[in-house]
Amino acid sequence: MSQPKYGFVFATVKYPEGDAASERAAMIVKMLRASGHIAYLVVPHSAIKKKQIVSHEHLKEKKIVPYLVLLSDYMRTKFAAFQFFQTIAFIIKAAGLIVYRSRQKKLNYVILYSPDTLEYLLVILACKIRGVTLILEACERMTLYYKDERKNVLRKAGSWLTENLTPKVSEGIIVISTLLQKYYSERNPHIPILLLPILVDSSKPDQTLSDRVNPSEIRVLYSGTFGEKDGVQYILKGFCLFNKIYSSSRLILTGKPVHADQFASIQSLIEKQDCSAAIEYRGFVSRKELAVLQDSSSMLLVCRTKSDFAKYGFPWKLGEYCLTGKPIIATRVGDIDLYFQAEIDIVFAESEDSESIGKKMLFIAENYDKALLIAKKSKESCIKFFDYTNHCEAMDRFIHTCIKEQ
Predict the structure, then answer these.
(1) Secondary structure letter of residue 387 according to DSSP
(2) Is the pLDDT score of 208 beyond 70?
(3) How would you label 317-350 residue by residue, b for 16+ Cβ within 10 Å and e otherwise?
(4) For position 259, what pLDDT does the model report?
(5) Does the structure show a pLDDT above 90 at 346?
(6) What is the tens place of the pLDDT at every residue in 160-195?
(7) Which architecture does CATH list for 219-386?
(8) Which of 324, 303, 169, 170 lies closest to 242 in space, CA to CA?
(9) Can you identify the CATH homologous superfamily of domain 6-199+388-405?
(10) Which of 123, 221, 270, 279 has the most C-beta neighbours closer than 10 Å?
């Protein structure tokens, strides 16, 4: 009988009450543990107070994977200098943890979740020195995100190194899309690459949590980061076209922009719309609050643009949306139409086309029973393609291949 493999997934996210990125990182840990690995998520800060995590029974009850917090729990700061020193402290502790566990022969591999190579350089060196298998997880091409920015020179440099240097010193790469798979395989033909799409846990019980006061209200929900890839401007204009016909409709926006200075531009964009009174921006909400909003919404939106950045990625929210059983409007960007078919298990709108988005909202509102049947198929397809249990065997084989490749 082979010995269990020990692994860490390092992610600069907040957990467990973090964003979609934190959910994917945690889902990877869940997959590894389901495959018999002794794996942990390692994060800088906890998103809840540590004293609330009192036992493994609590972890199980809250559907939280085992995780390690390397810095003070619940730490927050807006000062860039403090953030810099926190990052340095996290990386030093992370590298020390790798050295300590490897000396105990209780660390076989490390997965770096969408890392900035400049930040994680010490961790990479620790893996190389201690002979720990290093695996890069790539959800997007950040060089495309930063390509037009004159600021963030260090971020641009870190992203370039992540795409060009880190794969060269890694024993394996995990990617989220076929375009990323092609991109990395052409540049690193001898490195094992695992295509791991968005992941969901279909074992979570369905919840009825609606907070809608007005039953006749048609609630439309968008959740995201409000970046160029998300197409929010097209969603707003499309909703206004829909709102002219269904005046009781309401658009709810949730999420946190990548840059703090984008808050003002979001509010300005909303105020410029003819239907601004029917649009509500709630900012970043907890996962429980988001579940309530999803349950009380009539339709959910994933309307990505045609940008190169969007094409290389895959919308994490799509899987979460599918499990709600609510109608979804999406755009054919990236790999989405490899898994879903128009009007069979999803409603497709044209990308960057406000009129098309508005018409699809109208289609769902006027054919809601049919839209619910499509949504039911969406859920079935989602479980078939994205449930994490269906990828455990492939992940286990991949990890063992990477360890042997070292």
Answers:
(1) B
(2) no
(3) bbbbbbbbebbbbbbbbbbbeebbeeeebbbbbb
(4) 67
(5) yes
(6) 888 999 999 999 999 999 999 999 999 999 999 999
(7) 3-Layer(aba) Sandwich (3.40)
(8) 303
(9) Glycogen Phosphorylase B; (3.40.50.2000)
(10) 123
